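User: structure tokens for this one?
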Amino acid sequence: MKKIIVLTVLLFEAAQFSFAQNTIAKLKFESAEESFSDGNYGACFQKLSEAEKIFEKSNPPITHLRILTLDKLLQNDLKNENRNQSIEHLALLIMETDLYMKIYAAIAEAEEKTREVFKVQEKYESAINDLRKKPEVIDIVKLAYSGNVEAAYKLGLLYQGDKQIESALIWYLKASEKGSYAAMVKVYELKLYLKYMKGYSKESAEKLAFEYLIKASNAGYPNAWCILGKRFSQDKDGAEGKIAITGRDLLLKALDKGVVDAYYSLGKLYENGAKLINIDLNKAVEYFRKGAEMGGINSLKEMGYRYKKGKGVSQDYAKAMRYYENVIAKEPDDAMTYFDLGSFYNVGNGVAKNNSKALEIYKNGLAANKIFYREFALNAGKVYYEGGYGVTQDYGKALEYFIQAEEYPICWNYIGEIHENGYGVIQNYPMAMEWYLKAAEDEPVAMRNIARLYEKGLGVKKDKSLAQEWYYKAAEKEKSIK
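Assistant:
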């Protein structure tokens, strides 16, 4: 009898728990409906997932509302040109509509909802058919949403490759929470973006990112050794120089495991030295060269720069160009390298001067990454300002580009020269002086232009004393730059 009473109590408690769970799930679903009505589709999607988790299964209302929500999210993706976000949402839409049509479409009471689902399918029919030809993408999304760590990391990589950093971080954080060391390293690398995400401050982002890096390093993940080694190696005097030694040792461990970027960090360590590590430029260049031979992007850039400037190696423009070309072959979206490469043709270093070719390369750099529009405008402005070598001189275009890139002081000097000489505009010495003065803090050529105006009394009262003062400033600035 006592056993029967205990069993009855347990069954009653279980029933109460089940009822409470169902009540919570219903409340979650109602809250999701409210979010949908308010246009907060991200919150709606999240609440539907929470309701489904409590129910421990899907049901027609949840699946139906999720499909309508995905429709709205896809419309936002298309409006904002979020390519990978739209792929993720489209893959989810395929999974949800397939589930609905397979299980719930035959339910008589769901006829109206089935009609709505069918209309959504029709709307994206072409895109759905295209994505079905890439089942591996659908599988990544499906596995990521089911909690698969590797799939979550891969989804993060897709977003990062498309410059959607916040979406990438969301998936890297999910993968990190489940123990992916590769994802932990990514969180550290993107920590500057993490602090701008909801729920993070600069301090909390730094703390979490560093904790993940240490965790990955302690677990023996070589890429974490490389990053941590680089960080420690830059601390020249910490713990009487022992921190830099620890950094060097971590970099050597990473190198032993085939982490190519460790060559670059070791090269920088020997280039700059530390309290217990002597500067050794030969050793530094040796590490940079080996890293470049192994295809390391940073080492390739470093060797290109060194041959361009003749730093630690004999100046050789042809070799510099080859290194930069290898960078672009490996990273086609590296806009700044396009601009470095184009400058060889613009100036005529290592190749015959060819402004037309330079402009073509600059435009490729802009196409690779539109974030660097100002850099493109600066370089294109210089080409049109000079003219010749395959490009018709056009001061109007040059001025237009210089104004768009005016955060660069050299552009202010060019604008000054255009107004001083009346190139395509009415000659205006006072305006030229204004632009030269603006550029003078950083550009010795602008200082010399100011000196000349004072020397000749162009737009200002003739003043040889002031002219000499500006010539002196220009000479001192040139020395400091060298």
